[in-house]
Amino acid sequence: xxxxxxxxxxxxxxxxxxxxxxxxxxxxxxxxxxxxxxxxxxxxxxxxxxxxxxxxxxxxxxxxxxxxxxxxxxxxxxxxxxxxxxxxxxxxxxxxxxxxxxxxxxxxxxxxxxxxxxxxxxxxxxxxxxxxxxxxxxxxxxxxxxxxxxxxxxxxxxxxxxxxxxxxxxxxxxxxxxxxxxxxxxxxxxxxxxxxxxxxxxxxxxxxxxxxxxxxxxxxxxxxxxxxxxxxxxxxxxxxxxxxxxxxxxxxxxxxxxxxxxxxxxxxxxxxxxxxxxxxxxxxxxxxxxxxxxxxxxxx
Length: 300
What we know:
Radius of gyration: 21 Å
Strand order of the largest sheet: 1-3-7-6
Distance between the termini: 50 Å
Number of helices: 10
Shape: globular
Order of helices and strands: HEEHHEHHEEEEEHEHHEEEHHE
Mean pLDDT: 81
CATH architecture of the largest domain: Orthogonal Bundle
Structural class: alpha+beta
Number of domains: 2
Low-confidence stretches: 1-19, 262-267
CATH topology of the largest domain: Arc Repressor Mutant, subunit A
CATH superfamily of the largest domain: Winged helix-like DNA-binding domain superfamily/Winged helix DNA-binding domain
Number of strands: 13
Largest sheet: 4 strands, mixed
């Protein structure tokens, strides 16, 4: 914890969780190996939403998260949320993450960074505020990202209660415009740090996959279903079919004339390779955004 004169030199930010708050993460962090409880993820994400992506990397910034704000975002007025987040803030100091590759996908030789999420945490029980400083090694995966990153609204995951829902949502959101993502079971188990848990496929589906998919369909802007893929009769991959939920069209007002329907032919989508897509993407643009802008799809 930070006390006395050390705290005077830190820059504090406060957050109000709104629909426009954005989460930016390197794809290497999205596919990192770690375990966080739902409460711990909420604290981390609320702080990530405050990271100034345009400022130089520094570990002197302390981010402040009012517990009441998180309670409001998840639609809870229960006092138990205060106790839950207090316990989570105490455990966060010991949580670590294993990350492969560089923040922006650089480097040819695989290497693994193992680091703590945070340097220090201060919980002000009287004010109901959690103050957190990220570990310096984590900052390159959260700021100054130029390529190979994922972004989404904080409100997209605020009401999820499964520890795997937020993680799986992050793995899928960048593939919305592609329409699907195939994930090897061995990779999914590694990223979620399942180890020997849910060794049977039936248990993995019951306790991990199904709750995560159900909560994404209920609380997020995504509509998700999945298929099992086999190799030599053994299930080896999950293929997630991803789309955006349809937003109901507003009904015309009493004085608004309903326009005559106009038949429009949809623009034909063109297939491109991953390499060509990366060359066509603008600097700082994610591949998903490039797909949407160019109206193309990735050829298998």
